[in-house]
Amino acid sequence: MTLMIASTFGDAPNQATGVDLIEFRIDGPPTDEVVNNIPATLASSPCPAIVTCRSMHEGGLFDGSEEERVAMYNAALTCKNPPRYIDVEYETLIRHPLLLDALELGDTGVILSWHDMRGRPNDLLQRAAAMQDVPNVDVVKMVWRARSLRDNLEAFSLLQSRMQPMIAMCMGEYGLMSRVLAPKFGGFAVYCALVEHELTAPNQPTVHDLQDTYRFNDINSETQVYGVIGNNVEHSLGPAFHNEAFRNQAINAVYLPLHINKEWEQLKATMLELTNNESLSFSGASVTIPHKTNMMRLAEHQDEMCKAVGATNTITNDQGTLSATNTDVQAIKELVNEASHALVLGSGGVARSALAALQSLNIPTTIVARNVEKRDELCNIFGCTPWDSSTQTIDLIINCTPVGMIGSSDELASPLDTLELNIELHKDVTVFDTVYSPKETPLISGASSVGCKIIFGETMFNKQAELQQAFWVR
Fold first, then answer.
1. Catalytic pick from 141, 184, 292, 333?
2. CA 460 to CA 333: how far, in whole Å?
3. Catalytic site residue 292?
4. How far, CA to CA in Å, does 393 sit from each of 174, 197, 385?
5. What is the CATH number of the domain that holds 262?
6. Residues 323, 354 share a domain
7. How far, rounded to the nearest angstrom, does the alpha carbon of residue 50 sit from its chain's CA centroid?
8. Are 35 and 83 part of one and the same domain?
């Protein structure tokens, strides 16, 4: 069983439902304040505790002497309700090898920790071996800032080769996988945040995230892994939708945001490692901006819809062989079948899906995009025409750009403005924004204010996600 540790600065929470341990960080306040207050803090803790004094060079706030650190630890260790564990830094122990002898441990265990806030060190494996050779240590904890999703796989490898109880996690925007999947690889524990408390590490998930969204307690060695691949997936609806779908169907699977940078080399290298790592059980993924087209280069099997579009939003993995489909097309077809003349904004993978859907419905279509070369290519493929301001018959506008999306460079803008389109919206025009985060984008807000018919990106998302589930679960 992998324990869940809620980490917090300050006072104990009133309750900690589902949490096995609470880590109290004592590296912020003055030493005297900690010595005076830690007994009451531990006495009020709703579950067993860990006491941690994290040094500044390992991401904490403590810059005092080792005598001060020992005084704070001993105040906790000798009180009426001592902690279950204390956290001692490996680097500190190297500099002060007699540190453990100065602590009145009693029945309290020791977590030997190491953190690198910059990235993976070159001596990671040697460091792991050395830390596991230190005597009188109960748990080894190794944490570093991930440079890519591939660092998570190294954390899993450490857990698989461990010689004693171990915590191996990655921090930062790429590190969520290492926390959610820790039970799959036998991690001793993972750290998370209490919703109402300050985060104690970058991009730390909350207790609610792990328990409710990712079904942390249900994950085991047989859990299949799915996710959404893109370079702006933090606000994706995918984890909530697909994890709930897996729950309802009693399928042992979890769906994660999988951040991969936009470069082709990053996509290729990461996908090769994910798909060929047998112990990971990577089974499939949604594909979003900007990888919908390049993912086709990695998919050995492509259905006719993918071939027609030239882009995929859904893949499955069978022992390293990828198969691709495109559920965006069918979702768009169901939503726009009554239009008489459409305007598509953008030239990426979503635009390709929209154009394929409109072509199959025989709806005349014009397209506008910043990239004129791509625009002209799509006109040739899908039989549409470039936007001309003299066109007056548009009754459907589909935004297939990321403009307006949370996290994009233009999240506060409307694509009508960024593309410099002089279009007068009115009640006879339907505005369809494929962006779903936020639900009401600047484009949707402006269209609603003049009485346009609206198709939300969330509506499209739900339709295509249902089709993805059918593709994966066969």
1. 292
2. 10
3. yes
4. 46, 54, 14
5. 3.40.50.10860
6. no
7. 27
8. yes
